[in-house]
Amino acid sequence: MKNKGLVIITIIFFLIVNTTYYWEGKIGFFSFFGVLILVVIYFGLAIVLVRQIYFLIKERFADKKRFFRVGLLTIVLTLTFYKPFGLIDFDKFEGNDVLVAQREGAANCMTTFKLKDNFTFRERNVCFGVSEVIGTYRISNDTIYFENIKRGKQEDIKYAFGVIEELENYTENQYALKLFKNEKDTIGFNYFIEKNNLKIKPKIKCNR
After folding, report:
1. Collapsed DSSP state (helix, strand, coil) of residue 147
2. Helices (H), 59-149
3. Quick check: 149 and 113 in contact, CB under 8 A?
């Protein structure tokens, strides 16, 4: 039963790691603790692997079930080390990126805003945890409007619309996606554009 438990824990751990994309944004700040627990489990399984290898050698590779456990642990730990966020990039299954913009905050916090070719968007905020805002968008003239907005556990800002703005002073990024909370918002937030396949003429300044 103990050995079966080890196999079950190893498989569950592997599945959780490889589905991180779907759950970490839904639990917000608690995703930090979730990742921390996974790290502890990883090193715990690594210690178990060393013990299993020791006994396997001591038994002269006679125990086939132990050989299987060593193989399973080796594969899972190696793949997790190589791809800590999962083997599959699930983001690609949700459509091709037509616009990608990023904004870096304090303490190396990073927010990424993506528009997909199926008219959905996702804002992903990584800062002592992971939170997401998702929804749909439509384009009218030079303005991108956001609709059907669903927010994660954290109190992320919900933007109503945005425009592409050409920056007057820049070093790396010439254009920014400027997002506004509502019609009364005259300041907005700049997200520096990394990729843009939208056919929208950039503004020098937003006049809204």
Report:
1. strand
2. 64-82
3. no
